[in-house]
Write a structure and sequence with these properties.
Elements (H helix, E strand, L loop, with lengths): L1 H20 L11 H8 L3 H13 L3 E4 L3 E4 L5 H4 L9 E6 L7 H14 L3 E6 L4 H13 L4 E4 L12 H7 L5 E4 L9 E5 L1 H14 L5 E6 L3 H16 L9 E4 L10 H12 L6 E4 L2 H13 L9 E3 L16 E3 L2 H16 L9 E4 L2 E3 L9
Parallel strand pairs: 3-4, 3-5, 5-6, 6-7, 7-13, 8-9, 8-10, 10-11
Antiparallel strand pairs: 1-2, 12-14
C-alpha cells in the first residue's frame, strides 16, 4: 500500500510542478496520456490514475473526444505534498537475492540507503529474463528514484538487448553490479575477475602445480573473465592450455536439485590420466560440489588433489579441509553501489558514469598443498 501511495503521489506532484514550471494558464491543454507516459517513464495506467487524482481536486478536467485541460489552482505549491517513506524507494533487481553472497551485498546497499533516508524495494528474478524485465517495469511504474541491477544475462547484453533498451529509457539513475568493466551504459561496481582468475591460477603455479584444472560457469561475466585470467596465467608460466583440463556449465543446467559442478568434477577426474594436481573452481559453490565428487571418488584433499575456490562464502571455513579461496567484497560492493547511485541522484554536469573495480584478496586455508 505504501508503494502505491508513493507512485500516485509522485506522479501527481510531478504534474503539478510541470504546470507551475511551464506557466500553465487555465484552459490550456495537457500533453496526451501517451506523451506523458513517454516523458515520465511510467505506464499509461499510472498516468491515467494520477490524472484522475488531479481531476478529483478540480485541477484538471477531461473533455470527451478533446483531451485533458488545466483548470488552474490558487495554491498549487501547498498541494504538492511531501512523499512518504522519507525520500522514496530505490529498486534492487537481483537474480539470486536470498542465496549465496547476495544477502551481504543487499545489507551493504540497504544500510547505505537507509542512512540517506531511502527505502529499498527488492525484486527477485531467479535468472529469468522475462521476469527481470517485468520486475524493472513494475519498479519504474511504482515511482522508484533509482535502480541497482545485476543483469542475469550480463555476458550476452549489448545495446540491442531488451535490458539495455529498458535501462536507457528508464529516466532515472541506474547502477549495475557484476556487469563487467566493459559495460558503457551505466555506472558499475564489480570485481576484476580477469585478475581474480589470473591470481588464483598463479597462486597454484607458485605452489608447484603444473597440471591445473578449471571448472566454470560459461554464460556469466565472472565465469568468462576468471577463465580468461586462468588462461593468461598458464600462458605466462609456459604451461600449454589443455582443453581436457577444463569443464563448464550454463545457467540452464542450474535447475533445482542439480549439481552440475559435481558431475563435471567426476567426469573430468575419471577421464584424465594423469589426474590434475589442482582444481580451480570459479566460485565456492562449485568448489563445494567438487569436494563431494572428490570424496566420492575416494580421493583426499589436498593429499591427492588441491582445491581453490572464489568468494569466501561463509561456510567455506567449515568445510573439511577448510577451503582456500579469494575474498569477494560483498558488503563493500553493495555499499559502494548505493553510494554511487546516491551521487547520481544529485544534479551533476556532466553526468559521468563511474566504474569501481575491486581486486580480490587471498584467504589461505588448508585445501592447497605445495608440490616440491
Amino acid at each position: 500500500m505504501k508503494t502505491e501511495s508513493l507512485k500516485y503521489q509522485t506522479i501527481r506532484n510531478t504534474l503539478l510542478k510541470h504546470f507551475q514550471d511551464h506557466n500553465y494558464e487555465p484552459g490550456q491543454k495537457l500533453p496526451t496520456e501517451q506523451e506523458l507516459t513517454q516523458e515520465l517513464g511510467v505506464s499509461r495506467t499510472t498516468v491515467r490514475q494520477a490524472l484522475e487524482l488531479l481531476k478529483e481536486q478540480n485541477i484538471v478536467e477531461k473533455r470527451q473526444g478533446s483531451g485533458t485541460y488545466y483548470l488552474g489552482v490558487q495554491s498549487a505549491p501547498r498541494l504538492i505534498q511531501p512523499e512518504t517513506d522519507q525520500r522514496g524507494f530505490i529498486g534492487l533487481v537481483n537474480f539470486s537475492y536470498m542465496d549465496y553472497i547476495y544477502p551481504e551485498i543487499i545489507r551493504g546497499v540497504e544500510d547505505t540507503l537507509a542512512f540517506a533516508g531511502y527505502s529499498l524495494a527488492i525484486a527477485p528474478c531467479n535468472q529469468n529474463l522475462e521476469k527481470e524485465i517485468q520486475s524493472i517495469e513494475r519498479l519504474l511504474d511504482q515511482g522508484v528514484k533509482g535502480l541497482i541491477i545485476e543483469p542475469s544475462q550480463n555476458l550476452q547484453i549489448n545495446e540491442a538487448h531488451p535490458i539495455s533498451k529498458l535501462i536507457q529509457s528508464a529516466g532515472i539513475p541506474v547502477v549495475a553490479t557484476h556487469w563487467g568493466i566493459t559495460n558503457q551504459l551505466v555506472s558499475t561496481v564489480t570485481v576484476d575477475d580477469v585478475v581474480a582468475g589470473y591470481n588464483a591460477t598463479k597462486y597454484l603455479i607458485d605452489r608447484g602445480h603444473r597440471s591445473i584444472g578449471h571448472i566454470s560457469k560459461s554464460d556469466v561475466q565472472s565465469g568468462h573473465d576468471r577463465f580468461t585470467g586462468y588462461r593468461k596465467a598458464l600462458s605466462e608460466a609456459g604451461i600449454e592450455y589443455n582443453t581436457t583440463w577444463c569443464a563448464s556449465y550454463t545457467s540452464e543446467q542450474e535447475i533445482p536439485g542439480s549439481l552440475p559442478a559435481y558431475d563435471l568434477t567426476k567426469t573430468l577426474l575419471q577421464s584424465m590420466e594423469p589426474k590434475p594436481t589442482a582444481l580451480f573452481y570459479f566460485n565456492d559453490l562449485t568448489a563445494l560440489q567438487g569436494y563431494r565428487a572428490i570424496h566420492d571418488l575416494g580421493l583426499s584433499i589436498p593429499k591427492d588433489i588441491s582445491v581453490l575456490g572464489f568468494d569466501n562464502y561463509k561456510s567455506t571455513a567449515l568445510m573439511y579441509p577448510p577451503l582456500t579461496t579469494y575474498e569477494h567484497p560483498k558488503y563493500e560492493l553493495g555499499r559502494w553501489a548505493a553510494k554511487i547511485l546516491l551521487s547520481e541522484l544529485e544534479p551533476r554536469n556532466p553526468a559521468l558514469h563511474m566504474k569501481l573495480v575491486f581486486e580480490p584478496k587471498l584467504v589461505e586455508r588448508e585445501s592447497v598443498a605445495t608440490i616440491h
